[in-house]
Structure formats: C-alpha cells, structure tokens
C-alpha cells in the first residue's frame, strides 16, 4: 500500500475568526487539540444526522395501533372482495 493511502483524508473549511476562537476555546476546555476536537464533533454530528434520517420514530399509541393492525388486519370491504373475485375469474379464463 502506498504511503498516501494510509494517511488520513484532509478536509479544509473556512470560518470566521470568532468561530475559530470559539472552537479553540471549546477544544481547550475539553482537553483536546483543535483538530481532534473538530474530528470528534464532526463524527458525532454526522452519526446523529444519519441516525435521525434512518430511524422511524412514532408515538407509543401509533406504534401499538400499527402492531395490532399487523396482527389482526381489518377485513376487506365487500366491494374489494368482489373486485378480487372478478380479477381471479378473468385470470383463470385466460
């Protein structure tokens, strides 16, 4: 493997001086260097964003109603049953 393949990928960002000072202060307060602090915050926020988009959150009552509907689906209305019968008859006659 070449040396550059083993190296970490770089990201360059531009910030205001005020933001840079704020990040530097936060890094110092957490006992980290700026790069380490920024990496940790970026990784944590990236995971949070991905999880938020990949997770379906529903209220407890809605969850219970969904599970009950899966266990005992409601009966089909007669007009839908009639359509299914006509469809099956048509397919069987072909």
TrEMBL record:
GO BP, sorted A to Z: regulation of DNA-templated transcription
Statement: the UniProt record of this protein carries the keyword Endoplasmic reticulum: no
Pfam families referenced in this protein's UniProt entry, alphabetically: TacA1 (PF08681)
Chain coiled-coil ranges: none
Database matches in SUPFAM superfamilies: Ribbon-helix-helix
Chloroplast keyword on record: no
Entry-linked InterPro entries: Ribbon_hlx_hlx, TacA_1-like
Keywords: Toxin-antitoxin system
Top-level taxon of origin: Bacteria
Similarity comment text for this entry: Belongs to the TacA antitoxin family.
Protein name (database record): DUF1778 domain-containing protein
Species: Sediminicurvatus halobius
């Amino acid at each position: 493997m070449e040396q550059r393949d083993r190296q970490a990928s770089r990201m360059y960002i531009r910030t205001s001086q005020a933001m840079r000072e704020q990040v530097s202060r936060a890094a110092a307060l957490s006992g980290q260097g700026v790069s380490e602090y920024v990496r940790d915050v970026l990784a944590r926020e990236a995971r949070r964003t991905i999880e938020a988009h990949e997770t379906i959150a529903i209220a407890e009552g809605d969850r219970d109603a969904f599970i009950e509907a899966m266990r005992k689906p409601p009966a089909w209305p007669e007009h839908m049953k009639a359509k299914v019968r006509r469809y099956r008859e048509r397919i069987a006659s072909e």
